[in-house]
Amino acid sequence: MSTPNRVLIAEDSSVIQNLVKKILEFQNFEITAVKNGEQVVQLLEKENFDIVLLDINMPVMDGMECVKAIRGMSDAAKSGVPVVAITGNARNYTEEEFKEAGFNDVLMKPLNFDKLVLVVKGLTEK
């Protein structure tokens, strides 16, 4: 049996974090959840993940700063990990700005959980 894909979620809302975690665990993903972008960068330096889900508005380091830090990592496997933005403030950025920042896709809040699963599966299929 293949090992489950590892998902790193950065979301400062415990409610959203727990919902996403439950939905993706049900789909056999292995989930690690943190509260801000700085924790994402620290974890990525030590561990490998198949995809990163980043809330845009977080304390310490927001999603835009975090994706730039990920894309700037010297390890090509880590800098190339698929990164999906999760945002409730889509009007603050255009889809083009998300792509330029380095995101592979964008999910809007309130989250459509079917779309979440489709996007995560689509970006992690081996």
Automatic annotation (TrEMBL):
The alphabetized UniProt keywords are:
Phosphoprotein, Two-component regulatory system
Signal peptide positions on this chain: none
Q: Does this UniProt record's set of keywords contain Phosphoprotein?
A: yes
Keyword NADP set for record: no
Q: Which residues carry this modification: 4-aspartylphosphate?
A: D55
Q: Name one GO biological process term.
A: phosphorelay signal transduction system
Response regulatory domain: residues covered? 6-124
Top-rank taxon of the source lineage equals: Bacteria
Its protein name is: Response regulator
Source organism of this protein record: Lacihabitans soyangensis
